[in-house]
Amino acid sequence: MSERVFNLKNYQYLRVKLRSNMPEPERRLWRHIRGRQLGVKFRRQHGIGIFIVDFYCSEKHLFIELDGASHFTEEAQLYDRDRSEYLQDVGLEVVRFTNAQIMNELDSVLQVLLHKVQ
């Protein structure tokens, strides 16, 4: 890939702002995936093209998205679909969870992630 797509400078301020204002489901998941707890390194609020993904693992070309209530409108679902297609087109795999899954089924979520990164 000749053109730079990761962590574009013009989105740096937004990435930093998102990291400092993580919703509770993102904080909860981060506590369990940071520091190579699953055997691979994840980055939070990582820029890929014009998008910022919740969590990204460069070793496995995998990104994790957490979907809160705002993701369930028709407009948001179309945006998420287009965004996922772009990210898949650059060779990345997406794993999506709802905030409710993180808050209520964290062990199951971690098992899915562990399977994905092994």
TrEMBL record:
Pfam families, per database record: DUF559
Instruction: Name the InterPro entries for this protein.
Output: DUF559 (IPR007569), Endonuclease_DUF559_bact (IPR047216), Restrct_endonuc-II-like (IPR011335)
> Which GO MF terms does the UniProt record name?
endonuclease activity
Under which name does UniProt file this protein? Endonuclease domain-containing protein
- Top-rank taxon, per record: Bacteria
Keyword tags:
Endonuclease, Hydrolase, Nuclease
Q: Which stretches make up the DUF559 domain?
A: 16-117
Is Membrane given among the entry's keywords?
no
Q: Which organism was this protein described from?
A: Marinomonas primoryensis
Supply the source organism's classification.
Answer: Bacteria, Pseudomonadati, Pseudomonadota, Gammaproteobacteria, Oceanospirillales
Q: Does the keyword Hydrolase apply?
A: yes
